[in-house]
Amino acid sequence: MKGRRDFFKELLGSVTKAAAEFAYEVSKATENLVRPPGSADEDTFTALCEKCGKCVENCKTGVLEKYKKLNPIILDTPFMNFDNNYCEQCYTCIENCPSGALKFENLKKYKYVAKILKDKCVAFKEMFCLTCYWSCLNIDKAITIRDRSYPEFHPEECKGCGRCINACPTEPKSITMVKVKNE
Boundaries of each 4Fe-4S ferredoxin-type domain copy (predicted)? Predict the structure, then answer.
């Protein structure tokens, strides 16, 4: 037979778990974290990630960092911060992941592609800026120039490295990453 103490202990545990799950669902809708290469969908990734930090420690460019906002489910999980740098796609993060949260097979299933936010981009506000275009390794394929002034993004050619975001001079950035399923 359970006593009062056990009852309240279970109740507090249930409330804490529900609050954490609610915070996680809210953050999924608002955060748009760009996960390391080889991650699956967000729920699978967060379920598998052990928050060990080995992917962050072994990232050659320093684009990976641990999430530090107070959300118990995604706290200390890795994400790509393109303010720091871009991804060279060397995949040391996948090689050093002990939990299976990052897998080479997921590279065939999912990828990130850059998407321009025209309402924030200064090139669409009659200011000359082609920084994203000149930073792209897949120049004239992933990003082309329309009417000699406007960057145009082609997701089918994008490698998802984030060089364009890293180079973008606007704050907030005029480019975001979107995760898509490969076909």
Answer: 38-69, 78-107, 149-180
- Residue pointed to by tokens 């995949």: 91
- Token digits of residue 104: 């080479």
32-104 CATH fold? Alpha-Beta Plaits (3.30.70)
Task: Give residue-wise pLDDT tens across range 63-82.
Answer: 999 999 878 889 999 999 99
Cα–Cα nearest to 47, from 26, 21, 70, 19: 21
Q: Is the peptide bond before 172 cis (omega within 30 degrees of 0)?
A: yes
The pLDDT > 70 percentage for the chain reads 86
Token match 């992941």: residue?
97
Evaluate if pTM is beyond 0.85.
no
